[in-house]
Amino acid sequence: MTRRQQAIAFFVALCVLLVGAAVSLNIGWILITARSVTPLVLGIVSFALIIAGLIVYTVFLVLEIKRNEEHQTFINAVTHELKTPIASIRLYLQTLQSRDVDEARRRQFYDVMLADAERLHYTVDQVLKAGAAGQKRKTTARAPVDMAALARECVELAIVRHHLDPAAIVLETHDDRPLMVSGDVEELRTVLANLLDNAVKYSGETVRVTASVAAPSPGTIWVRVQDRGIGIPRKQLKRIFNRFYRVQARGLRHIKGTGLGLYIVKTIARAHGGRVFAQSEGEGRGATFTVELPRLQPASEAAQPAAVPRSA
Predict the structure, then answer these.
(1) pLDDT number for residue 26
(2) Does residue 310 lie within any of the structural domains?
(3) Model confidence at 102: pLDDT above 90
(4) 259 close to 243: Cβ distance less than 8 angstroms
(5) Are the C-beta atoms of 293 and 220 separated by less than 8 Å?
(6) Which of 105, 117, 156, 164 might form a disulfide with 168, Cβ 3.0–4.6 angstroms?
(7) Residues 163 and 268 occupy one common structural domain
């Protein structure tokens, strides 16, 4: 039993004992004051308030313990995600400084250090975006965004970033007309990038990901990312969008992360008037994430779509 489980068990047991003591006192009070209506009513009301207070206090305390545990898990994950690439970069720099290395190995070292720097940048970027998402969102300038074009760009970037075969991620579009939404192009790019990165990371050894953009109704656009990886236990489907939460399943200990990616996706989707939901048949059966966004009405679709600048 972990420390958190022991703390929760202790406070639940304490609450049960206190409730039992309160019940005993209330029964005694009823027996003593059975012939007097006013003290009897006051005793019952006071008893109900005490019981309610104990239950609320215990629930709040258990939630705080769980939240602190999630924060500690997040700190450990971020520390690992920061220390590992820093240690790697330092080792390669020390090697380059202390030894004569041929040009081929030197280029190999540079490639590894650049990859580690990219990992550092991604981790810091996720933390900053999660912090911004947790604050009150300011009104940002919205513009028409072609989701099919944005999805195509994000798929190409994911293939390059993860060194995948072009056939590893397939993009499908189900409408010949422009699939436009009104939004912030950088935030929507973050949504797609996070979903694609998760799909690749949790695919296992063989990456087979399908991304699709469709309009299931005249006023709605769906962006869907489906993988055939390790899947998600059904009981955890609603919790995976919580901040710091990471899927608890077999074979996931070697997969590192901060538990912020899906929280950022949910926050951005809601800020754009949409939602995100996940589907999975269970462990080992893959997962599907769908972002639902309001589609621009035909009168607005005539507007010029926002440029989609490429990320560096």
Answers:
(1) 66
(2) no
(3) no
(4) yes
(5) yes
(6) 164
(7) yes
Angstrom distance (rounded) from CA 263 to CA 269: 10
**If phi over 0 gives left and psi between -120 and 50 gives alpha, with beta otherwise, what is residue 203?**
alpha
| pLDDT reading at 45 higher than 90 | no
Residue 309 domain-assigned (yes or no): no
The enclosing H or E element of 7 equals helix 3-32
Sequence-separated (6 or more) residues with CB below 8 Å from residue 212: 171, 172, 173, 174, 222, 223, 224, 226
Average pLDDT over residues 33-37: 66
Residues 168 and 86 in one domain: no
Give the tokens for residue 167. 């056939």
Q: Regarding predicted confidence, which is higher, 274 or 162?
A: 274
Count the domains in the chain.
2
pLDDT at 221: 92
Q: Please, which residues have CB within 8 angstroms of residue 45's CB and are 6 or more apart in sequence? A: none
Dihedral sign, Cα of residue 127, residue 131, residue 133, residue 134: positive
CATH number at residue 287: 3.30.565.10
**DSSP assignments along 198-264, one per residue:** HHHHTS-SS--EEEEEEEEETTEEEEEEEE-SS---GGGTTTTTSTT-----TT-TT----S-HHHH
Residues 116 and 156 in one domain: no
pLDDT above 60 for 222: yes
- In 3D, which of 218, 226, 242, 121 has the Cα closest to residue 172? 226
Secondary structure tally for the chain: helices H, strands E: 7, 7
**What local confidence, expressed as pLDDT, does residue 40 receive?**
64
On the question of pLDDT at 294 being above 90, the answer is yes
Q: Which domain holds residue 238?
A: 144-301
Report if residue 306 sits inside a domain.
Answer: no
Q: Look at residue 150 in the predicted model and tell me its pLDDT.
A: 92
Q: Are 179 and 148 in contact (CB under 8 A)?
A: yes
SS3 for 144? strand
